[in-house]
Amino acid sequence: MSTTAIFDTTMAIKRRIEAALNGTVVVGPPTRTVTSGFSASLFLFLVEPNRDLRNSDAFTTGDSSPFSGPAEPIKAIPLDLRFLISVFRTTGSGDQADPNELLRLGEIIAAIEDQPFLTETAVPGQTVRLTLEPASMDDLNRIWGVFPEDSYQTSVIYLATPVYVEAGTRRVGPPVQIHEERTGLSTEAPRPLAELTP
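Above: the chain's sequence. Below: its structure in token form.
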């Protein structure tokens, strides 16, 4: 968990879509000014607290070392991220259909549904689930209303949750460099108790 969690999640989804399309995805609004050379766009349009988890404790993931101790609670806020994924029209214009547009949309959905989780390798310290969100025409009209000069492109909405953003800076001690185990009899004289107590 860190302050880069939103960025890490967005980039992980971008890579997933690019792998499915074997093309380039722009991160940002699906405007005509960026469509040249891009297959699709990934636009984060809503960030809000996760209502179910906002009052639950979040914990560090720790590591596999037997000396790491139990996970400790940290101050972090769980977020729901909603993304608008749009595919760009490559043929036709206006009301004319573009078969390639529909094929790319199917490839994106198939790739995400095949692996709906972003694991720690993509978003350090957490596991994020991607879910296709139902959206009515009114919902899409409100979103696309933000871009009054751009025509509608075929789009879907995906929810990424939970994405934890850690508050403040966590103080982490230096990692253990060397661990030695001593067995047998010691030739050293025992230290006085006063020296052992802090």
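Residues 5-196 form one domain.
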